[in-house]
Amino acid sequence: MISVNDFKTGLTIEVDGAIWRVIDFQHVKPGKGAAFVRSKLKNLRTGGVQEKTFRAGEKVAKAQIDNRKMQYLYESGGSRVFMDLETYEQIELPDEQIKDELKYMLENMELNIIMFGSEILGVDLPNTVMLEVTATDPNIKGDTSSGGSKPATMETGLVVNVPFFVNEGDRLIVNTADGTYVSRA
Q: Structure pTM?
């Protein structure tokens, strides 16, 4: 058991039979009344995000999550195949379970697979990934690097707003948390 006062971003907890990851939290001490913790939690089974409020000092169960290092190999009819880098065992995850993560995944990429016991909950992406621009509007003379942005389609199909100086074929670093442009690679 862990106190909600000890919440950290990325912590996994078990509440009401579901496995949740703490995305954001805030300790609130109102002038009148008891203190509480307002949190934003992501359900690791369904992918849904929910805001939940806990009384200060309330105890919740900490979920024992394992991360197994695996390599994404290929698509196989509505699912994706991953290989354990230690045992060479292969597993398949349905596209529906990892639909948000697919926008950042390239073949042969090494990722962490999130497991709760023997149940596979999903994929844990790195903070940033390097993707190539496959389509974007051409640069127009007079555009500056500091003003404005244009949409660019990456090799995975992800659309990212990028500065005007970015061209097709450029390799970019993209933040996986919110899908934003970080820099050129």
A: 0.74
